[in-house]
Design brief:
98 residues
Length: 98
């Protein structure tokens, strides 16, 4: 009877099965890096929302599953407060026309 040979299992970096990413992310250093990236992204989102003329607290709407999609569409297709203020200033002659 012929015995089929065991398939060779490749482990280590570059093979994806046991690359160590899961172990690294579970450490304190991995958690600190992930939290730092999330914090930078959160601050960037707040700054973008504030520059559009809305309160930075609107970023919290992103945590609510259905409401975040609705508010995304509202923000995308409504006239932003900054645009309204610029239009009013141009109408009064406060800003030069573009």
């Amino acid at each position: 009877m012929d015995a089929t040979p065991e398939p060779e299992v490749f482990t280590g970096p570059g093979y994806g099965v046991d690359a160590g990413w899961g172990e690294w992310l579970a450490t304190g250093a991995g958690l600190a890096v992930v939290l730092a990236v999330y914090l930078v992204v959160l601050v960037a989102y707040v700054r973008i929302i504030q520059k559009a003329g809305y309160s930075g607290w609107w970023v919290l709407v992103g945590l609510v599953p259905v409401l975040n999609a609705v508010m995304f569409l509202v923000f995308a297709f409504s006239t932003w407060p900054v645009v309204r203020e610029n239009a009013e200033l141009r109408a009064r002659g406060g800003l030069p026309p573009r």
